[in-house]
Amino acid sequence: MDPVGELQHRGGVTRVSALRAAGVSAYALRRSKERGELRTVRQGWVALPDADPEVVGAVAHGVILSCVTAARRQGLWVPEKSPLHVAASPHAARISVPSQVVVHWAKPIVPRPPDATVDELVNTLSVIAQCQPFESALVIWESAMNKGLIDAARLRGVDLPPPARELLMRARPFADSGRETIFISRLRWMGLRMLPQAWILDRRVDLLIGERLVVQIDGATHTGAQRTRDIAHDAQLVLRGYHPLRFSYEQVMERWHEVQAVIMEAVAQGKHLA
């Protein structure tokens, strides 16, 4: 069996024992190393020359990718400029990683197989709950639920640590982006009915507060035809008695006090009421 093809099938990095179990001979492995088709990463592990550097680095140091790093690799929202996060067995000895890498030593909820290079999602979410600020963790959890990668019933069936149980009580799968989760989380103190991804006039809006106050949160690339359609939809909302408010990503993430002040004034004027 061709070791290069089997390695490609396994993501470019794997244990030698897994290749041998799949039918790759010791001779084929040796010849591939001699030709430079694969290389030894760590004793018992090999990788293709162009294998994912994050995975290769984790394997080389005897850890696996976890927390926000694993979440990012699954397409979930994560805080910008997050350092690399990895997980190590709580019984591991002589783990040495660069100083900027965050290592999590907690015992995993779901056992990690010996071939794992990236943590399982339940483990990832549990580590995030204990590592990240509540708001950031909530965004990641809701992102996973919204994408259908996990649901509350599955999470309720495992022994979660207290921070994760608190997140499970709050997380909902309806927010379509991290910005929406942040918006709802920061306004929850107002005690208002907030419905993310509400369907109004044949289109979804990011958030409906009360019965008439519509919030739209524009991304960094909100231009061109999309912006034209959104402006037209805002006009139709106004004609039908709704009150649309539109905020930019930069306002929500960097100038929240201004956004909150506008929402508070709109509520004070009864704009959220029918």
- Helix-residue proportion: 40-55%
The helix/strand series, from N terminus to C terminus, equals HEHHEEHEHEEHHHHHEEEHEHH
Give the C-alpha Rg.
24 Å
State the major sheet: 4 strands, mixed
What's the mean pLDDT score?
Answer: 91
* Number of helices, counting only DSSP H or I runs of 4 residues or more: 13
What can you see in these coordinates?
- The chain has 274 residues and is of the alpha+beta class.
- It folds into 3 domains: 3-51; 60-170, no CATH class; 178-268, VSR Endonuclease (Endonuclease, Chain A), CATH 3.40.960.10.
- Helix content is 44%, strand content 16%.
- It contains 13 helices and 10 strands.
- A 4-stranded mixed β-sheet has the order 7-8-9-10, sandwiched between helices. A 3-stranded antiparallel β-sheet has the order 1-3-2.
- Helix 5 (67-73) crosses helix 6, helix 6 packs antiparallel against helix 7 (134-146) and helix 7 crosses helix 10.
- The protein is elongated.
- The protein starts with a helix and ends in a 6-residue tail after the last helix.
- 31% of the residues are buried.
- The mean pLDDT is 91.
- This is Endonuclease domain-containing protein.
- InterPro entries: DUF559, Restrct_endonuc-II-like.
- Keywords: Endonuclease, Hydrolase, Nuclease.
- GO terms for molecular function: endonuclease activity.
- It comes from Microbacterium croceum.
In brief:
By secondary structure, this protein is an alpha+beta fold. It has 3 domains: 3-51; 60-170, no CATH class; 178-268, Endonuclease, Chain A. It is 44% helix and 16% strand.
